[in-house]
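Course exercise 7: structure representation. Students receive a sequence record and must write out the corresponding structure in token form. The form below is the worked example handed out in class, using Putative esterase (241 residues). Read each field label carefully; the graders check that inputs and outputs are placed in the correct fields and that the protein name is recorded exactly as given.

STUDENT ID: A-19
EXERCISE PROTEIN: Putative esterase
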Amino acid sequence: MERAYHKWFSPALDRFMEMLVFGHAGMPVIFFPTRSAHFYDFENWRVIDAMKHKIEAGEIQVYCVDSIDSESFYSEAPPPHRIARHIRYEKYILEEVIPFIRIQNKSRELVAAGCSLGGYHAVNIALKHPEMFTKVVGMSARYDLTQPLPYFADLFDGYFDEDIYFNMPNHFVPGISDPELLKRLRELEITLVIGREDSFLENNRHLSDSLHRIDVPHQFYIWEEEAHRPRYWREMVKIYL
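STUDENT ANSWER:
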């Protein structure tokens, strides 16, 4: 299995960013790490090994991007700064990572995927920019970071503004009415996966219901138990990626 390390200075983030790429060809997958995790964690957790057969066969090429969650959602900065930093991260993905992938990989497809907070990142960016992606997979994710849950706080301390609204799928999806955006979303392959005992189950049901209400097809799978650990993600990626 080919493995390549990349690092460059990001103009969007004004800092160096790192990435691991696994594979030589196939459908490119931007794989977002879990909360405050890093680009190497999926390799360390053997999630990449779980996809080894597909990667070596040239079916998929996995781009493990780094996280800046400790500078955005989990920073001690004021809430407007937290969401502003997240928006810069999205700019990095759209204007730096995706063009890099397009040079490396000639496939017309592009997948966004992630686990836990990485699933939020994947689903949020794909639902806002469906013209950039052909598929999105969110595993064990939370789609409203403003909603306090047992063991999980409101990441904006009660603050709410337009930028937060347009970066929380459970807020902006019900209000989508633009015909072109709806057309693009209906062409996007959307998969949501969550554990029956996961604190985020109702969060996922809310997003699934919202997608149904705007007639956007998607797949919604509920696994037994909490299913919010690398040993479950190793199985999920075999099925959904």
